[in-house]
Amino acid sequence: MKIATYNVNGVNGRLPVLLRWLKETAPDVVCLQELKAPQEKFPEQAIREAGYNAIWQGQKSWNGVAILARDKNIQEIRRALPGDEEDSHSRYIEAQIEGISIGCLYLPNGNPLPGPKFDYKLRWFQRLTEHAAGLLAAGTPVVLAGDYNVMPTDLDVYKPERWINDALFRPEVRLAFRTLVDQGWTDALRKLYPEEKIYTFWDYFRNAYGRDAGLRIDHFLLSPALDKRLLAAGVDRHVRGWEKTSDHAPVWIELAGA
């Protein structure tokens, strides 16, 4: 099974790019973030014509997450992260597909800091960590995929010294990511490429993509049952070079059958 995650940075504005990539790579499951579309404006028909079923949780102007599955049934589990009933951000959706629980997430950016946005990011991370512990305890195969808005180590950012005071690289945020992983999750890309420079995001400004001034902020965390099934992982970085594309590139893993 090939599973991908892709922050599309506006599902309707980038729809031609998304459909081109789906046709080119044909992943079995796709987690999308930053739909930037209300629930009723999700391009369901175009996605279905591309061969995918979909569930989604939209939000006007920003946020929004979706899970797509090619010729597979999607059993929705939840469409919000537990722990705060007053949280109105559309940042998490979870489903089961062919026996695998898939959590698609868009973790808050957290800038500027200090301030309420950074505090919200840390609270959201704590809620994710608590929910992830429950998923592990259940013992079923789980993938937590999406835009985590964190560079876990210096290897994941082109010039670490420039990001010391950014919410994506603050020690508190990197510690939160390590705490989550240390529950027993596997960072899929780092398992296969422990020392390689791998980026998933390049800013639109200052020719970041051309200079390869990137960040690795889109991650796959795998439960122990799936860690054993991991065959391959990668970044479709060439998609970042397409016209009118997202500032993220799609990231993917391949899993062996159960």
Automatic annotation (TrEMBL):
Endonuclease/exonuclease/phosphatase domain ranges (all copies): 4-248
GO terms, biological process: DNA repair
Tree of life domain: Bacteria
Lineage, uppermost ranks: Bacteria, Pseudomonadati, Bacteroidota, Sphingobacteriia, Sphingobacteriales
Annotated PROSITE patterns: AP_NUCLEASE_F1_1, AP_NUCLEASE_F1_4
Family that this chain belongs to: Belongs to the DNA repair enzymes AP/ExoA family.
Official protein name in the record: Exodeoxyribonuclease-3
Gene source species: Anseongella ginsenosidimutans
Chain residues that bind Mg(2+): 7, 34, 147, 149, 247-248
